[in-house]
Design goal:
Structural class: mainly alpha
Radius of gyration: 26 Å
Number of strands: 0
Mean pLDDT: 87
Largest sheet: none
Helix content: over 70%
Strand content: under 5%
Number of domains: 2
Length: about 80
Amino acid sequence: MINAKKIEDIAKQVTDSIPAGLKDFANEMEDRTKVVLQRKLSQLDVVSREEFDVQTQVLIKTRTKLAELEAKVAELEAKFTAE
């Protein structure tokens, strides 16, 4: 659901911006930043890219089927009104 790589990249950027003498502190901050980001991002009402792509394909198939059914209904309506 949440892209762990992006979270790690953000945490690394935060760590890299800290002076070299504070690396132990920076490592601890990186770990804490990951935890906080993961916790907060998991509370957001979002879907993963995979879920989005799957639902997009389902929607495309559904729209195609709907168009086919609408065409059949129109054909049947025309047939019955012609009689």
